[in-house]
Amino acid sequence: MSLERDNMSVGPSMSVGGSSTDPRSQLLQEMREHNFDMIRFASYRTACKLRYVQKKCNLHVIDIWNVIEAFRENALNTLEPNACVNVTRLETLVSSLYHNLNKRLPPAHQVSVEACSALLLNWLLSAYSTG
Questions:
Q1: What is the pLDDT of residues 30-73, one digit of tens each?
Q2: Which of 30, 67, 96, 103 is most buried, judging by how many CB atoms fall within 10 Å of its CB?
Q3: Domain ranges, ordered by start, for the chain
Q4: Are strands 84-86 and 14-16 parallel, antiparallel or unpaired?
Q5: Nearest one of 89, 57, 54 to 73, comparing CA atoms
Q6: Which long-range contacts (CB under 8 A, 24 or more apart) does 11-17 make?
């Protein structure tokens, strides 16, 4: 499954210390502050960065059943493996992941669907960027 790009910027801008930045730039800045680049071996460095992104996007609390349910709700379980998915459809998939997650989390532990979706979508789009 590959991505078809409708537009690059997805979701709202976040305010950090008075300045408005996109979620991906904020994520990269926070990763620099954690000094992941000081880790010697590339595989460990990559693993630490991916784990940080996973926790920041709250992906560590989404189980496989939520993923399967979101794919079925959005009719993505019948797609061919080499089919393209446009950004709008990906945005719907990601937001349904977080909505389903909030259904099973207690009210005190609910995640911000809009913020998590924007962060994950911007990260995915930049990670799979072809240009």
A1: 888 999 989 999 999 999 999 999 999 999 999 999 999 999 99
A2: 96
A3: 20-127
A4: unpaired
A5: 89
A6: 11/114, 11/115, 11/117, 11/118, 11/119, 11/121, 11/122, 12/114, 12/115, 12/118, 14/115, 14/118
